[in-house]
Please model this.
Amino acid sequence: MENITTYVKEHKDRFLNELIDLLKIPSISADSAYKKDVLQTAEVVKKRLEEAGCDHVEICETDGYPIVYGEKIIDKNLPTILVYGHYDVQPPDPLNLWNSPPFEPVIKNTDLHPEGAIFARGACDDKGQMYMHVKAMEFMTKTNQLPCNVKFMIEGEEEVGSSNLAVFVKNNQEKLKNDVILISDTGMIAKDVPSITTGLRGLSYVEVEVTGPNRDLHSGLYGGAVANPINVLTKMIASLHDENNHITIPGFYDKVEELSKEERAEMAKAPFSLEAYKKSLDIEAVYGEAGYSTNERNSIRPTLDVNGIWGGYTGEGAKTVIASKAFAKISMRLVPHQKWEEITQLFKTHFESIAPKGVTVLVKPHHGGQGYVTPIDSIGYQAASKAYFDSFGKTPIPQRSGGSIPIVSLFEQELKSKTILMGFGLDSDAIHSPNEHFGLFNYFKGIETIPLFYKYFTELSK
Ligand code: BES
Ligand code: MN
Ligand code: MN
Model:
């Protein structure tokens, strides 16, 4: 029977060209100017799932962008794997920082990817990683090696909060019934250090608006005599962290899970070089919450970060003005047990309470989501671990990620199944940034590892 490594070798060019075609479509869910492209991407995904051997593929309409659903049920008594991914991408801006246009994929070599990496928006997050599953499916169906049932659910609104997917999942429990959910939308430690993501952080995203005087004012005539909303906003934001970089919002840490000494010691074993980390970012020092390591700060600890701040005059030259309004967008990454709605409320109450007289504050909640952790003693984790061992020759390291896929905790709540996060990206792949890329090694290794997961999951489920 044909083996996956040879199959990948034989079909390498086609696997790559199909991904390139997918990456050419600018499926930017956040920008309605790309509506046609997002919809077209859903059509392409549908076609590819059919070609890969799904028996039944449909485009499920929602109040937003559609969900592509496909399945192949070979035997009701066998386990069912539900694959989730997203075909939408982040906006590519700032465009001038891309070395090649974001929707004209090119393959270039880099220090980390001497065998080449594909540069395009969505290459890693998540078209490239999602498409590995489509190609793994193709291999299993074309060579008669699909060992269990499979369902695909590929959405188009992950980058904007998945709110319509949440409705779809709640309304389609029977259709989506599964034994395990499999997602490739995270990363791994390094090309030669495979890892399995065992946790994701939650998220609360808010926008704030500080209003002072009813109109913009001359900063000479009024400066010093009225509250300047930008001065006030920056002072309020600065007060959200204390001198140890702890977040000062009352109650913020109440539900944070403190890891045991043993768990922290276990985490610290993951290979990590602070020197290389600083070098890769061109920084002299890291920065963060006192008492925690870099890897802890970006995975098991909650954070608060300003994502954007604006107001007043930012054009060329100088304009002496006190703006009437100042704005900021703020994200809080949360850890398991912190409830995002609760945190949003705590933020709102606190932020309103610290506003001085002379300004009014408006806090607008955006989206949010719960964090997620998965145990390593489940059949799903064990199957993934064996799959990586076979394809990489090393047992993967369990690792909690700092990123968020808010829908994962909803899957657990509604579908009662655990998610296995088999990510093949690297932190250096520049997801959400200019020059996003995905290593060809990672792409093909992913395709090789996935069928092994199917095999071991089916065996271990017996
Ligand atoms: N795939 C990412 C999340 C991710 C990346 C998790 C790398 C772990 C490692 C996903 O597409 C994403 O960008 N999520 C957003 C949240 C969403 C609500 C917009 C995020 O983490 O900012
Ligand atoms: Mn993603
Ligand atoms: Mn993303």
Notes: The radius of gyration is 23 Å. The pocket of manganese (II) ion (ligand 2) is lined by residues 86, 125-126, 158, 185 (CB under 6 Å). Residues 440-461 form the longest helix (22 residues). The mean pLDDT is 97.
